[in-house]
Amino acid sequence: MNKRARTSGPEARTTIVASAVLKLSVDYEQSQELPIGKAVYSDTVTVGQDNLWRVECFLRGEKVADGGKYISVFLRHMGESTSVMPVFEVCLMDRSGRPSMRQRKTTLRDCETMADDGNGRTWGWTQFIAATLAERNYTTADGHITFVCSIMVIDDSSTPVPPSDIGAHLGQLLDHAEGTDVSFIVEGQMFHAHRAVLAARSSVFRAELFGSMSEATMPSITLQDIAPATFEVMLRYMYTDALPSDNMPGACPINTLQHLLAAADRYALDRLKIICAHKLWEEVSIETATTILACAETYNCAELKSKCIDFIVLGKNLKEVIFTESYGSLLVKFPSVAAELREKLHDRIYAYGNGIGATED
């Protein structure tokens, strides 16, 4: 039995929306007086709904580099649609007036070029046939060379690919607690989860749940130093790759974001950490700048830290920031950050004094 015998499969169908056949005859001797790169055009024809087309023949070739050694043939789309897909087939009439199957090309099989020069898209061949071969075999007694061109427009419409819904499905898996095999106790609250999902998302959880640590065999794990609300948001993120769209739980959004950033750092959730850093930057103000700066320093968020420092030394901001409660704590807890603030401020004052683009209000 032939193992490669064709088996039954899904039905496939291609729909030809419209088609046209046109014949373009050109006086070959006169065409040799044209410069290289100058085309002879067919009439414009309508194929498909509001789709205009024309055939362009360069009897001395389209490219100067070819030195007039080849005939070039192209189909140009004159319409505005960018999704239309043609099948362009060209053959030459032989000396007896019959289409030559030996000199026949189709864009389905051997399209040499497809381009858009700003005046519409083109399909075709820069070197359709050698000029000497065309003159010898396809020029009729009256000196004409004839191109038979078939244009077919294929229905290229397709069902759009919907956005990924794996996050929604995994979120439902979390909500329904189907197949859970581990639970976490956070300040007395229990959260059920799937070891495989957590291990896939976090290298820290992978080491805890599948490594040599004691948690690997424990059905229930108690977590310290994380609030239930924070763990709940982090857990859902690990399943859905998204944060809640409504207001995040917690008395203060900034506090919640800081706690979530700390959790992301603890469990090596790098994308979540960056998301939290971006959201914290959106909350930076005179009142919050030093608190967020301290968080950035604690959890090694270099970009957020740099932005906070720039904000604090900008204009009159520092004069107001130093009177906030958190500024004193920052100086005591992070003396290196205080040194960076002084250095940045010194640089700005120096730049201002030398007129290097800095401005002071």
From TrEMBL:
InterPro entries: BACK_BPM_SPOP, BPM1-6, BTB/POZ_dom, MATH/TRAF_dom, SKP1/BTB/POZ_sf, TRAF-like. It comes from the Eukaryota. SMART domains: BTB. PROSITE patterns: BTB. GO terms for biological process: protein ubiquitination. Residues 180-247 form the BTB domain. Pfam families: BACK_BPM_SPOP (PF24570), BTB (PF00651), MATH_2 (PF22486). Pathway: Protein modification; protein ubiquitination. Belongs to the Tdpoz family. This is BTB domain-containing protein.
